[in-house]
Amino acid sequence: MTQNVISEKKAKSKLKLSMPNVFVILFAMMFMAMIATWVVPSGSYDRVEGPDGRMVVVPDSYTVSDSTPVGIFDVFIAVPQGLTEAAMIAWAILIIGGTWQVLHATGAISAGIENMVTKLGKREVIIIPIMMLIFASIAAFIGAMELAIVYIPIMIAMCLALRLDVLTAVGISLVSVGGAFAASLTNPFTVGLAQQIAGLPLYSGIGYRLIVLTVFLGVGILYVLLYARRVKKDPRKSLVYEENLNFIKTYKESEVLEHRKEHKYIGALLIVAFALIVYGVLKLGWFMFEIGAVFLIVGIVSGLLSKMSLDTITDHFIEGAKSVLLAALVVGLARSIVIIIENGGIIDTIVMALVAMIDGLPHAISVIGIFISQSIFNLIVPSGSGQVMITMPILSSVAEMVGITKQSTILATQLGDGITNILFPVSGVLMASLVYAKVPYFTWVKFIMPLLIIWTVLGCIFLVIAQAIQWGPF
């Protein structure tokens, strides 16, 4: 009997070891992209200057071009190219990781979370919807999926204090940001740009999108809460039980909490920094360079407030940067997949094929076809604004021909892009978040897939209703 148990454990261990590393997954996708450049014909649309100065596609201008298949050596060249193009986010991840280690070493984060948990008592579960609503509110107005990377370390510390797991922390961050990005109210990179291209009043139709956003977030929050309650009740039901134990072992608790005044100052500094980042993104056009600079300042100042020497601050910073180095590299590898497809000249061909699929659908379900096609295209071009520049000029023309309102078309592209942002491994934000929390990709897929199916069904329902009521400009 004992021997059977041991054999079963060994079998499970071997099965676990057979799960591919995130690097293996991304390299496999890179080689799949290479093969696609040999199979899919090359072609391109003409492009003209768009409303924001960037180049947009001209509908009905697709022409076949000479094939430019990507070779094996080109695949490896795409890796440093991807790291170069994704350097802005990669460097920000390193800085955030370094700063977070300094903050953690001060004891301020542990003290703040301990104080919060003590005050909440048995009502501690309310912190999850509160944090998700805060993160979602920011994403609903400014987009910026990349901010999820900033939230992850804070949520990990909070969830470990609440005796939850790191998967809950990732869920809080990505589900809130992903859901709000998918049903965004005024995201300038998707909604604003798409409405400009389609010739609609800027941010019009916000009332209907608010209904979609409310339902999406309500379902997402409930989903994460149910999982968190299950883990709280029985930690062994965690999907990352072993990974969570290993994470806790390597997660160094800060020393005895001594500098109470300094903790308050550091907490205030962190609040001011987040407020400044939100204001900068909203009003000043900030992105990852500016966000990284703010975190760098926070790391130095918090260390000095905690009476650390400059050498000690530097040591903690380097240690933190090392811990997220893999996450930074993953962002570059995800970008490399897109570079291979671009070099093969097959992006426009894929767009043409997807549009042809929509054009052949019955009028009543064409809007769902746009939703599905945009979801597929998100595997090729994970950038929201990049997708809009390529697909919106074509889709808006096709939509008019088949009787779909422009607002419905834009909502379909939003949902198609946003929902799969937290599923497809080409998303640098997703993969970096998972690597930081040490959550295996396929474990995340197992966790998130039921919610994505629910969101997809809800999205289809909202799109059909939008088309039925002929949702117009306002």
Automatic annotation (TrEMBL):
It is a multi-pass membrane protein. Keywords: Cell membrane, Membrane, Transmembrane, Transmembrane helix. It is found in: Cell membrane. The chain crosses the membrane at residues 21-41, 91-113, 125-152, 164-186, 206-228, 265-282, 288-305, 325-344, 350-372, 379-399, 419-437, 449-469. InterPro entries: C4_dicarb_anaerob_car-like, DASS-Related_Transporters. This is YfcC family protein. The lineage of its organism: Bacteria, Bacillati, Bacillota, Bacilli, Bacillales.
